[in-house]
Amino acid sequence: MASHDEKAKKHVVIYAPPAMFSHLVPLVELGKLVAAHGLEVTVVLGGLTEDDAATVSWAEGTATAHPAGLSFHRLPHVPRPRDVSAHDYVAQTFALARASNSSLRDFLRAASPSRASALVLDFYCGSAVDVGAELGIPTYFFYTSSISGQAGLLYYPVVHETKTPRLRDHGVDHVQVPGNPPIPAYDLPEENADSQGNSLFLALGEQMCKSHGLIVNSFRSLEPRAADAIVNGLCTPPGRRTPPLHCIGPLLKSEEASANRLHECLDWLDVQPEASVVFLCFGTLGRFSVEQTRQVARGLERSGQRFLWVVRRPPGEDDMQKPADPDLDALLPYGFLARTKGKGLVVKSWAPQREVLAHAAVGGFVTHCGWNSALEAIMGGVPMLAWPMYAEQRMNKVFLVEGLQLAVAVEGYNKEMVGDEEVATKVRWLMESDGGRELRERARVAMRRAKEALSDDGESRTSLLELVEQWKS
């Protein structure tokens, strides 16, 4: 009887893009949740090249740590496309994922499509929606960013018709997406400003409308206007159906308390007053020039506030995927570390961000506006200073500042340099002013709503269980 149950176990396949940890982490967390409800889950890594050893190593380690019901499968390596610029990371990722579709088809056939309840795609893998349709497997998209961003993707064909993306360089016009605050044209992602990027995101909108559902890493009570706009069909171009929306977030990387608790910064935070420290961290790829780093340092010193700052090596000839640790003495202003000792702590390259943002001593977060980081701040009840740097982060800045009112923008993020006076002024405002205290209170309200959404009867847990029941039946 046990073997019959195992044989009948339904199978969910999650198709992840190559070498994108900001997407891979929430995709794997989704897989863990689904597996915990009795489904067999395979995370398929596609579009891998010979250079993606770090992704494979991370996946193998994750599979070892969480073996029950969750497995990983690597599709064969593919060559980098010659017809796409090596500097166009977004177009490269779309093309690499598309190049693995035939191998994905072979894997799904070999894995018995009759047991496959669902194929869940990251948006970079959107072209695989046709593979799911060919094999008769219900196909879903998992959007690893906000509901507001999902609304924008669905609405993109309408925006494209107005030629609005071309106005981005003028810096005066706005895009109005249903359910969202107006988005300045200069805050649209870089890839939306060229013809190749336009074609990729136009195709993506169509692929999403072909799917059986849209799964989003956010919670409805955080972004109700955007969610309502999607559900009511306001974001979908005329003639296209709107797939069901499933908001199941926040999905965050699992805590690794035993290892992360050894980090020096947590011991340092333990002896700081409550809500007194501003934390600065800018994502895996967030790296400043030498001069910008020094401007931040001078600003922090002038602010007079306690700070915890993750500093990475400036861009250069070193490996962008794994740059060496910075030489702090050479990089920071002379005497900075000595003058700020006790009041500030500079950490090289990495810190356990989720644990830091959950610490009672942290009262503010200067962030690049990556969605995973924003969710970790929301779960920690920490207000943000928004300093977007690349990809969709400028749009996230708009959502966080204008829509959710959980952040204030650092002026000059879209210019060549943010000066030390701006850093000092904004950090002081966040940590000392009445406006900063109001922002902190809104962040704590958002934290309570997030925890309610993830509770047993909460909106996100209920939405996930509805999906699981669909896939089981």
Structural class given helices, strands, pairing? alpha/beta
Low-confidence stretches: 1-6
Q: Would you tell me the overall average pLDDT?
A: 89
Report the count of strand segments.
Answer: 15
The multimeric state of the shown protein is single chain
Number of helices: 20
Residues in helix, %: 40-55%
State the strand order across the main sheet: 3-2-1-4-5-8-9
InterPro entries: UDP-glycosyltransf_plant, UDP_glucos_trans, UDP_glycos_trans_CS
Organism: Urochloa decumbens
Family: Belongs to the UDP-glycosyltransferase family.
Enzyme class: transferase
Briefly say what this structure is:
The protein is of the alpha/beta class. It has helices at 2-8, 21-36, 53-65, 89-99, 101-110, 129-135, 147-161, 195-210, 224-231, 257-260, 264-270, 290-303, 328-331, 336-339, 353-357, 371-380, 393-403, 420-432, 434-454, 459-472, and strands spanning 11-16, 40-45, 70-74, 116-122, 139-143, 174-175, 183-184, 213-216, 245-247, 277-281, 306-311, 344-348, 362-367, 384-386, 407-409.
3D architecture notes:
The protein has 473 residues and is an alpha/beta fold. Helices cover 44% and strands 14% of the residues. The chain starts with a helix and ends with a helix. It is an enzyme of class 2 (transferase). Its EC number is 2.4.1.-. This is Glycosyltransferase.
